[in-house]
Amino acid sequence: MSKKKGLSAEEKRARMMEIFFETKDVFQLKDMEKIAPKEKGITAMSVKEVLQSLVDDGMVDCERIGTSNYYWAFPSKALHARKCKLEVLESQLSEGSQKHANLQKSIEKAKIGRQETVKQIK
Questions:
Q1: Which residues in 28-58 are b (16+ Cβ under 10 Å) and which e?
Q2: Which one is predicted more confidently, 3 or 85?
Q3: Is the pTM of this model over 0.85?
Q4: I want to staple 73 with a disulfide (CB 3.0 to 4.6 A). Which of 2, 53, 60, 98 is the partner?
Q5: Hey, which of 57-61, 88-92, 105-109, 113-117 has the most confident mean pLDDT?
């Protein structure tokens, strides 16, 4: 008897995102519970949990239409989210380097007119 090793939560999330990106389609939960085990090896019991974690993290969109919930994620949204995050990080980096430069200048100004003292241990 060979035992299969189960997928980790991150592997399940990555595989589910692959389903969305490859098909570029909108799904209901029952559709995902059928597709995920066949195509990506995600157990049907954990599909809802994985899908909800992706929705909570903003990686998958969910909309209630009538009595049904529809789920979707398109590659363009992921790309846009990465670009926005990159812009935020670049602005934080430039602010940090500017602050660093200002602090270095103030250190140089503070050193003018001061003498370094050498402490002698007795």
A1: ebeebbebbeeebebeeebbeebbeebeeee
A2: 85
A3: no
A4: 60
A5: 88-92
3-state class of 52 per DSSP? helix
DSSP 58-113: TSSEEEEETTEEEEE--HHHHHHHHHHHHHHHHHHHHHHHHHHHHHHHHHHHHHTT
97 pLDDT tier (thresholds 50, 70, 90): very high
Provide the residue type at 99 as one letter: K
Residue type present at position 33: E
Count of residues making up the chain: 122
